[in-house]
Design brief:
360 residues; alpha/beta; Rossmann fold; SH3 type barrels; 3 domains; 6-stranded antiparallel β-barrel; 5-stranded parallel beta sheet; 9 helices
């Protein structure tokens, strides 16, 4: 097949390219330039040039042509602007989910010509066909599994994709990179939000939203315990960065109108039930919600942990989720992703937490 490979400059996509090359496919590599170098120049060097050097070195070694696709404006309009707006509204954004849905498998597909049979990436996920529909499956490596970030994709997008390393463990990917002596074999995995690289998210938010002094209020007593520089620096469940003794202290809710952050050091007491939340804008990969009798699990964030759960739907896109267990980080704006065994069924935005964290 003729395959367009999205190359990031990391070890995962490099190994994906090598494996497809080994299989005899006609592969062409593409690097998406989304770094906001003018926007972020004041914070330090943007790492896109280093990423591109690794991508180019890999392509040179494998004799694969590499093209650079500039998508800065599209990325800003659909991912960065969304992130800033969500934070400003007091919610917790998921920019990587938006990047996959709208940029990597959205605008990029529009940029390349129709001669490509498939688009390949270094994501840890797998695909299968069942009853005429594409299924998104968890990767072999439960820790590296990235279906959480791919959960907003649709049937048309999945039909174009291939994930060459989804059936490998991360250790196996590293071993293959060593075996083929790839330029990226010793490169560390990237961390954080894709468009920031090594830049701190708080510094990025400070640039756009600035600071505004507000009160840290103990949730149970209403007592002022300290001050903060803006509710937008905090997310529900956060315990770092509060700077108070007598803890550990956790953020339990925020009043965005009065710029108040409510905190508690009794976050895990039995009366603090955090096992239910409303969802909105649900997206189902199959096009329709799962049957009511489906045994479901849900992820509240990227990682291997899933909660057994049930969904009481009001309609195809809204409802209430109940998890078996308590989660101290149910934050409006972040995504809940649902599974039936290893099949990723789709995702929804957490609209609000149902429970005791209502501002008095």
């Amino acid at each position: 097949m003729k395959i367009a490979v999205l190359l990031s400059g990391g070890v995962d996509s490099s190994v994906a390219l090598q494996l497809l090359k080994n299989e005899g496919h006609d592969v062409r590599a593409f690097y998406l330039k989304i770094w906001l170098e003018d926007e972020l120049a004041y914070l330090g060097d943007c790492p896109w040039e280093e990423d591109l050097r690794y991508a180019q070195a890999t392509c040179t070694q494998l004799n694969v042509p590499l093209s650079i696709i500039p998508l800065q404006k599209e990325y800003w309009d659909t991912v960065v602007a969304y992130t800033i707006a969500e934070v400003k509204a007091g919610r917790t954004p998921s920019p990587d989910i938006m990047c996959n849905q709208r940029v990597k498998f959205g605008f990029f597909l529009q940029k390349i010509d129709g001669s490509f049979d498939k688009i390949a990436t270094g994501h840890y996920a797998s695909l299968a066909r069942h009853n005429g529909l594409w299924q998104l499956l968890k990767a072999k490596d439960p820790i590296k599994d990235q279906t959480y970030f791919l959960s907003a994709l649709n049937q048309q997008q999945l039909s174009r994709l291939v994930f060459p390393i989804g059936t490998l463990l991360k250790t196996e990917v590293r071993a293959l990179a060593q075996q083929y002596n790839l330029p990226t074999m010793a490169r560390k995995d990237s961390q954080g939000i894709c468009f920031l690289g090594k830049i701190k998210f708080s510094d990025f938010i400070r640039h756009h939203l600035g600071t505004q002094d507000g009160d840290l209020i103990e949730f149970e007593t209403g007592q002022k315990l300290g001050t903060h520089e803006g509710f937008w620096y905090y997310t529900i469940g956060q315990r770092k960065g509060l700077g108070l003794s007598g803890g550990p202290w956790f953020v339990v809710s925020k009043d965005t109108q009065q710029n108040i952050v409510y905190i508690s050091n009794r976050y895990y007491t039995p009366d603090k039930q955090r096992n239910q939340f409303a969802i909105a804008a649900a997206h189902w990969i199959a096009g329709t919600p799962p049957p009511p009798d489906t045994a479901l699990e849900g992820k509240i964030r990227h990682g291997e942990h899933c909660y057994p759960c049930t969904i009481a739907l009001n309609n195809a896109h809204e409802g209430v989720v109940t998890i078996q267990g308590n989660d101290q980080g149910l934050a409006p704006g972040q995504f809940a992703v649902f599974y039936a065994n290893d099949v990723c069924l789709g995702s929804a935005v957490i609209a609000q937490e149902s429970g005791d964290e209502t501002i008095p």
